[in-house]
Amino acid sequence: MAKRHPNDPSTGKFPLPLGLLIAVAIAVLTAVWLISVIGSSPSSEGTARENAKALIGGPFELVSQDGETVTEKDFAGKYMLIYFGYTFCPDVCPTELQAMSTALDQIPAKRLAKIAPLFITVDPERDTVAVMKQYVALFHDKLIGLTGTVEQINTIKKTYRVYAEKTESTAATDYLVDHTSIIYLMDPRGDYLSHFSYGTTPEEMAEKLNRLIPVD
């Protein structure tokens, strides 16, 4: 079941104006990503989906919140629902993960059993196994947190065409990470099937998942 995130952004470390600026920046990054990778013309929807299928996804090796090595093969036959973010994210990441969790609670059990919801960090230097385990427990019982070495994370970022860069010097320990905010839906073969843009409501997400994922 989805759990309510305990942090209130209005009383958090980052003031609201900064949070709004971050949300706007992520929305812009996401729009640029959609245009460059997915395409934006309704008349080319089929072609755009095929292009995305060719460009997004592939092999990976990461570490779960339980400290176990995980690859794409562990999710063969499942619909991977993937969000890239980081645990120190002040508002956008917890908001999107909560939306994903709420959507999952609106899906019938048989369909839910076919979905593997994944939260993959773009900040492996701070998001250790222990940190990821504590963080994903705040959202949904089925949510799997994945981290790894800097090299492993850089590899999967390239594999999934994810943009993520620190906003401060690499020596700083207190920094934000600019990143695209996209929830990917991959099919049972690990190929791109669809995506959810930043701000998609749980109801819209649940409706699309119910439509795209068949129940035997």
TrEMBL record:
What positions belong to coiled-coil segments?
none
Q: Pfam family example for this protein?
A: SCO1-SenC
Q: Which cysteines are joined by disulfide bonds?
A: C89-C93
Q: Which domain of life is it from?
A: Bacteria
GO MF, one example: metal ion binding
Q: Which UniProt keywords apply?
A: Copper, Disulfide bond, Membrane, Metal-binding, Transmembrane, Transmembrane helix
- Which residues are Cu cation-binding? C89, C93, H179
List residues traversing the bilayer.
20-39
The record's comment on protein family reads: Belongs to the SCO1/2 family.
Supply the name of the protein: SCO family protein
